[in-house]
Amino acid sequence: MADWNAEQYLKFEDERTRPSRDLLAQIPLSDARKVVDIGCGPGNSTELLVKRWPQAAVIGIDTSADMLRQARERLPGHSFIEANIAHWAPPAGTDVLFANAIFQWVPGHLKQLQRLLGALPPCGVLAVQMPDNFDEPSHVLMREVAQLEPWRKALGESARLRDDIPKPGGYYDALGPLCTRLEIWHTIYNHVLDDANAIVEWVKGTGLRPFLDPLEAPERKQYLAEYTARIAASYPPQTDGKVLLRFPRLFIVAVR
């Protein structure tokens, strides 16, 4: 895929940051020396970590140069590193690994979570949030439109770039033996957005990227028109004209 677009992602900064706030609130650690924000994006989640543990060394890692540029501008006094989580190991003495909406993009992420949790010291915390919206209309319609002509050939592989995440029991069995405490829960957000176009703008910054990046401009325009029409039919307006984007998310807090 092309690089992430920090400006597009931040169009819905408040809504995107809410899960980070909710995840952070459940970390049972009053003090921390080293904290890592995995998939830090433009630094909105990193900023929360800095405020929670002002004395800690807080590091952000991401694969996107544009996201890291934005994060460094936002928090110039902190370290941000370009790295792929599949090939990265936490520094010795890391107390918190925080990962908001990143591991759904990582192939075989259960094994990666086991590896990272196992690298933490006693009482270290792995805190993870992932969208669990693969079967929501916003994502089902991406795949449906991709199977239509004239996009089928160009987008045949796009639907496989992100797998649906396992059920909670899969995480429990994989992480439980490595933990002294393991919390797993779902939260369903109903984000109030202006209209169907706003839903499309939201997913253009995340899940729709694999479907748009392979297309040339004319095909991309046609794809977006078809997708937007289907989104409008699936997310009818409320009495005030707004729409509700239903967004389930899975949360995990594992204490070593």
UniProtKB/TrEMBL annotation:
InterPro entries assigned to the protein according to its UniProt record, in alphabetical order: Methyltransf_25, SAM-dependent_MTases_sf, Trans-aconitate_MeTrfase, Trans_acon_MeTrfase_C
Keywords (A to Z) from UniProt: Cytoplasm, Methyltransferase, S-adenosyl-L-methionine, Transferase
Gene Ontology BP term (one): methylation
Domain named Methyltransferase: residues: 35-118
Record's catalysed reaction(s): trans-aconitate + S-adenosyl-L-methionine = (E)-3-(methoxycarbonyl)pent-2-enedioate + S-adenosyl-L-homocysteine
Enzyme Commission numbers on file: 2.1.1.144
GO cellular component, one term: cytoplasm
Transmembrane segments: none
Function field: Catalyzes the S-adenosylmethionine monomethyl esterification of trans-aconitate.
HAMAP family for the chain: Tran_acon_Me_trans (MF_00560)
UniProt cross-references to NCBIfam families, sorted A to Z: PRK01683.1
Protein's name according to its UniProt entry: Trans-aconitate 2-methyltransferase
Protein encoded by which gene: tam
